[in-house]
Design brief:
Number of domains: 1
Strand content: under 5%
Largest sheet: none
Helix content: over 70%
Structural class: mainly alpha
Distance between the termini: 19 Å
Order of helices and strands: HHH
Shape: elongated
């Protein structure tokens, strides 16, 4: 399951509004791809857990997700 595509403009807007950071269009595009990938991995792993799970299990799920996508 994926969310709406993150855009470079969204990254640039947040950089300016939240931390007064001016990010180039190129770098913002790179960051958007990284943030989108991380966000989707976290959300995909989160649906497999509940609040009673061992906290370390979340990290294990993220690592398993990473290894599965690396193949």
């Amino acid at each position: 399951m994926t969310n709406e595509k993150l855009t470079a403009q969204l990254i640039r807007d947040h950089g300016r509004q939240l931390v007064r950071l001016d990010i180039s269009e190129h770098r913002a595009g790179e960051l958007a791809a990284e943030v989108e990938r991380l966000n989707n991995a976290v959300l995909d792993a989160a649906v497999r857990l509940d609040f009673n799970d061992e906290p370390a299990r979340f990290t294990a799920l993220l690592l398993a997700y990473r290894q599965a996508n690396a193949k």
